[in-house]
Amino acid sequence: MLKLELVNVVKRFASEGEPVIRGLSTTVAEGQMLVLLGPSGCGKTTTLQLVAGLLHPDDGSIIIDGKAVAGPGWGLPPERRNLGMVFQSYAVWPHKTVFENVAYGLELRSVPREELRRRVQQALDLVHLGELGERYPSEISGGQQQRVALARAIVVEPSLLLLDEPLSNLDATLREQMRIELKVLQRKLGLASIYVTHDQAEAMVLADHLVVMRNGIIEQQGPAEAVFLRPRSGFIARFLGVTNLLKGRVIEMVPNGARVEVGALGTLSAFLADDVRTHLKIGDAACVSIRPLELTLSASRPASATNAFEGRIMERIFLGDLTEHFVQTGEIRWRVHVASSTRFVPGDTVWISFAPEAGTVVLDS
User: Fold this and answer.
1) How confident is the model at residue 62 (pLDDT cuts 50, 70, 90)?
2) Between 3.20.20.370, 2.40.50.100, 3.40.50.2000, 3.40.50.620, what CATH number should domain 234-363 receive?
3) DSSP strand pairing (67-71 vs 307-318)
4) pLDDT the model gives residue 288
5) How far apart are CA 42 and CA 53, in angstroms?
6) Which CATH class is domain 2-229?
7) What are the angstrom distances between the C-alpha of 346 and each of 12, 142, 278, 306?
8) d(Cα 130, Cα 23) in Å, to the nearest integer?
9) For residues 3 and 318, what is the distance between their CA atoms, to the nearest angstrom?
10) Of 28, 87, 30, whose CA–CA distance to 63 is shortest?
11) pLDDT digits (tens, 9 = 90+) for 321-333
């Protein structure tokens, strides 16, 4: 069952201005976590505000639980959409106890006192604050305050949970812990959720369905692993993590693949997705994206390698379990991640190789 449908949503902040959201369409199914990811100013938070009812679309429609809640110039107010919201700033009331903060939404709904106490205690137990109900926000940590905000959002049993960069104010260690806790809780409750972030690692951990935005449009969407492994553009490949992005021209297209000529380096063979193929023809500019972990280093040319290039190690950086090597082949400097047990040093001549399916042909953008 679909909990949310966005259908060709457009939003402008000036009547004659350029739209900040340009015909956005996506869905959230029951129990699914959709993550909106993109650089600052791409429209992530505006999209969340449209779903929440804080803004109204100029075109398109927003449907929650099968009912239209917004269209061009109109929308139900937030309190009539049965939403739970968690903000970056926690937004807990300092004069109320933890219990009273969580109970607030139920009080507005006139929930009977006995049921209110049961539901608040259950929500506090779920976020591991069961023993802290009588404390005030000033008496608990930032991470615990964020759990209070989360408990307040889920206690009302919302149709949809909206989270706007809720972990960005936490330190790195706590943020990593909380993202796992949040994912476990969301799955346990089966809550349909929209999560806004600009943190790629956070998006990969949390997303059942990943939507990458740029300039008010969806650049690519799908399962997080699929978007990471098979980006459709240079922007997506770069934005989702370190990659080797080699610019060239398409010289041949075959089923599931293509050959791309990359200057003096020569010709590369790589995977080509059907939705990218439809935008390319022979002679067009394109890029090949290869993640550093997909590359192999060897002292001699691999006998059966389709893509193999001789180079020299310029830098070696120890990263713990992995070591990053910067390898120069002509004008191209590669980034290669290999196990730290691999012993190459700057100045060594090596061969870089990768299987065709390890590289992806992407649009040059």
Assistant:
1) very high
2) 2.40.50.100
3) unpaired
4) 98
5) 19
6) alpha beta
7) 53, 45, 42, 25
8) 44
9) 46
10) 28
11) 999 999 999 999 9
Please count the other Cβ atoms lying within 10 Å of the Cβ belonging to residue 26: 17
Q: For residue 43, which amino acid is it?
A: G
The amino acid sitting at 89 is S
The full set of domain ranges for the chain reads 2-229, 234-363
Burial 160-170 (b: 16+ CB within 10 A, else e): bbbbbbbbebb
* Alpha carbon separation from 65 to 29, 192, 279 (Å, rounded): 10, 11, 36
> Rounded CA gap, 259 and 311, in Å?
21
Residues 6+ apart with CB under 8 A from 336: 292, 295, 297, 324, 325, 326, 327, 352
Q: Nearest-5° angle of CA 100, CA 152, CA 11? A: 135
Q: Do domains 2-229 and 234-363 have the same CATH topology?
A: no
pTM (2 decimals)? Answer: 0.90
Residue-wise DSSP of 240-260: TS--EEEEEEEEEEETTEEEE
Burial of 238 (0-12, 13-18, 19+ CB in 10 A): middle
CA of 224: how far to CAs of 212, 231, 240, 315, in Å?
10, 10, 10, 31
Structure tokens at 243: 């990659």
